[in-house]
Amino acid sequence: MKVSVKWLDGAAMEGESGSGHRVMMDGPPEAGGHDLGARPMEMLLLGMGGCTQFDVLLILRKARQEVTHCVVELSAERSETDPKVFTKIHAHFIVTGRGLSERRVARAIELSATKYCSASIMLGATATVTHDYELREADG
């Protein structure tokens, strides 16, 4: 896997993935940025959210669970001293569907956290990573 990050101006950067997708990153004005994009550490957290949600949805699809909507909200704490690594990360899943099995949702999240999500397992080397969920029944 290869990516590139091109410096634009101040703290603004444009990242390009190996698959050709681009994303803006920037810092706050007090750090020389223009606030044009997510902060690099936010990108790490977003990546973990995408990675774990992908796993959970794939596992639930294979379990024939009818998921109609899924959001994972992540919150993190960082060390106060350099390097300011993540020390705590919490992922809260809100899974909406029809007749969802609580046992299957819990198991899908556990499998992502312990076996499949490379991002959360890697970040777990420096941070305590926790997960929880809520189930919602879809309308209709």
Automatic annotation (TrEMBL):
Pfam families: OsmC (PF02566). Residues 13-36 are annotated as: Disordered. SUPFAM superfamilies: OsmC-like. Transmembrane segments: none annotated. It comes from the Bacteria. InterPro entries: KH_dom-like_a/b, OsmC/Ohr_fam, OsmC/Ohrsf. PANTHER family: PROTEIN YHFA (PTHR34352). This is Peroxiredoxin.
